[in-house]
Design goal:
globular; 42% helix; single chain; 7-stranded parallel sheet
Length: 264
């Protein structure tokens, strides 16, 4: 399963999951652009891999246009787009301000829309040359069921799920596959922030206690790693997934497969 000769762009490419995706696509031979607000990203360090960093605010249409122009000039096409940029606000709707609500949708939904919109000419070029191109959006298991205190986040992920299906229908005839990865609990800075926030339902428990409680509620008795997500993104980006499109791929260690009140 090689991606040699392919070009990929990963938004949120300097975050926890984004970096793992960039690293995996690089190992498979792709040329990778890591698009993010800063080179350090959410992990706070720089130069972690050989992906080419491009500064990109996914909420700005001007940035989307300029980034795609850069890729067009350097590579002429884009084979793989991964819309991994995202934010999470830990509040109920009553406590969420309109500014926070709009910001959540701007990054998680509008960012996916703008990036994909302006990538389409390059994705079409790749599809004409190689027979196909791939978009991987980022939903969440929270787009199907809800954690408490994550109202805006859940709403944005439900929107990404619907958008993914619509994009798959619209652009499948052009040879562009569109899928969404829907992670559960993944060991990232966002998850660690959740453990420390009110939305975790911690009730004064230590972070270690909360982490263990989260592990115990999963059938696999662990939460995921960024590399687990990168493995699925890699497959969806490859020719092995050439018949996979319009799907929401839940990767949550079996968490959403069980009826919680029946668990002993």
């Amino acid at each position: 399963m090689t991606l040699a000769g392919r070009t990929a762009l990963v938004t949120g490419g300097r975050g926890g999951i984004g970096r793992a995706i960039c690293a995996r696509l690089l190992r498979e031979g792709a040329t990778v652009y890591a698009a993010d607000l800063s080179e350090g990203g959410s992990l706070g360090d720089e130069g972690a891999d050989s992906a080419e960093f491009v500064r990109f605010d996914v909420t700005r249409e001007e940035d989307a246009k300029s980034v795609m122009a850069l890729v067009a000039q350097a590579r002429g096409r884009l084979d793989i787009l991964v819309n991994a940029a995202g934010i999470e606000i830990e509040k109920t709707i009553e406590d969420t301000t309109l500014e926070e609500w709009n910001r959540s949708f701007a990054v998680n939904v509008t960012g996916t829309f703008l990036t994909s919109k302006h990538a389409l000419p390059l994705l079409r070029a790749a599809a004409r040359q190689t027979g196909g191109a791939s978009i991987v959006n980022f939903g969440s298991y929270d787009g199907f069921i809800a954690d408490p205190g994550l109202a805006a986040y859940c709403a944005t992920k439900g929107a990404v799920h619907a958008l993914t299906r619509a994009m798959a229908c619209d652009h499948g005839p052009e040879g562009i596959r569109v899928n969404a990865v829907c992670p559960g609990y993944i060991d990232t800075p966002m998850l660690q922030s959740f453990f420390g926030g009110e939305g975790s339902g911690g009730g004064g428990k230590s972070i270690d206690d909360l982490q263990q409680a989260v592990r115990d509620v999963h059938p696999l008795r662990r939460y995921g790693t960024p590399e687990d997500i990168a493995n699925l993104v890699n497959w969806l980006s490859s020719d092995e997934a050439r018949y996979a499109s319009g799907q929401l791929w839940v990767l949550d260690g079996g968490l959403s497969a069980q009826v919680q009140q029946m668990r002993l």
